[in-house]
Amino acid sequence: MKRVSLATFLVLITTLILVVPRSLPAPPRDGGSYKSELRSIQAEQKGKGLDSCSACHSTNGAIYKFTEVNQWEGEGGGRHKLSYATLESDWSKGIAERLGGGSATSRQDCLSCHSYDYNLAHDLDDSDTAELEAATRKQMKLGAQGVSCEACHGRASKWERNHLSEDWASADEAKWLKSGMVDNRNLVNLAERCNACHVGDDEKVLTHTLYGAGHPDISSFELASYLNFVPKHWKSLPNEEADGHWSSARIWAVGQVASLRDNARRVGEWAKNWSEGGKPEFSLFECYSCHQNLMPKSPSWKSGREQLSEAGEPIWNASNWAMVKHLVTELSKGEMMSWTNSVKEVMSAVSVRRPDPQRAASAAMALEGMTNRLLDQISPYGKTASVDMGRLAPALLKGIAKDARYQMSVGPRAAEQAYRSMMVLYSWGWAKASPPGNHRALDKAINELGEIVLKFSGEGNQYDPLQQAMQESLNREDWKLNDEVFWGGKFAEKMQEIAGLLDAAS
Known about the structure:
Layout: H1 6-16, H2 33-43, H3 50-57, H4 68-73, H5 83-86, H6 90-98, H7 108-114, H8 129-143, H9 149-153, H10 159-162, H11 173-179, H12 187-198, H13 208-213, H14 223-227, H15 240-243, H16 247-273, H17 300-303, H18 321-331, H19 336-349, H20 357-378, H21 389-401, H22 404-410, H23 412-433, H24 439-457, H25 465-474, H26 480-487, H27 490-505
Helix pairs in contact: 12-16, 16-18, 16-20, 16-23, 18-19, 18-21, 19-20, 21-23, 21-27, 22-23, 23-24, 24-25, 24-27
């Protein structure tokens, strides 16, 4: 091996750990153009696999001994690393059996999110049996590595060498894109990459059929709190230095808006693929608008909710809109009517009895345009954001706390988003930056809100108790907790208490 000079070595370290400069050149952005162009470039590349990355990014590396791979794996095993192993569990075997048999480790609808899903054999001649067998063996090896480096950073056959150059860390998004490397320095790209599996897109969708076969529910993904569960293998995110204690608040804002946008895109995909007599994909809806107790409700049930859909119709999952509406109130109040009308149009057009794909597509497109503009305002890539999350957070918290009735009307998913938002904006932001005089009371009330939602959800697991346990409640025969916590008023009462404490804190 050639000897490397100290200067070159230091440049490599700086580049490989992706130290993000304070200011990056801002490329033009136009909705989904970045994603589509990236896909086109990635389609021409081949995966290198975890072993190639580990040559530098692991403490066992043959070239350098950095630590990113070790950190990604996490103590006891990172969840993304174990994602493929999950497909070998008895639970996954049961899901595959209910879907018609076979193995979960060979189903594309499972592998697309549970593994590195690139098909190495796609461009080989079927007659070349030896090459196909070799590609299949390599594919199986890559798949077993779980959601590894290239699943998030892009197939590396072209950029693996490029990212060693001295100017790579300071290069603009266009240069990274040309090589096929995902620019996760841009929070919008980061959210979109996570959302591909955790929200769904035109290629990866967790369908109602998969839910029915037993897949855990993931319909209330929230970017900031989920990043907290990912073993940290980066030095810093691009907004951390500028935002300080409020960095998670900006990630929350980007995540909520991007999730609303990607849910709108899913509506557009349904509308595009709709055929006469077809029904909406049921995973577009709030689960609990169907999975609810059919016994008589408590008297407060009807008075505590707005009717957002016709009787007997499920409701489009607008849990992200229940949070984004407060961002719009603070940042684009003049456009609130347009936002509200588009959401109502989607709710009405994504219908089981009277589906209207043309109207749904039009409303979804309008929502996508508005979310893209709001994302540019919240997180303008390469520029200093004009939106001060520290100034904005108290108003957002008050708005969310005083909006329990709408959240209950959308469903438990919105209530879960409300709790997560309180946690990110207050517990991780305000309380750390400059805790108010009544901090103890506020902190206690928000923790109690979490206990209320967790009580409804049942017992959780060590990764994400709130999210994973929600699935158990869907399968219960006893729905008394549903009535007691949401329609019986406990959730609304606690939100009212928090709203009063927030008013007193200002």
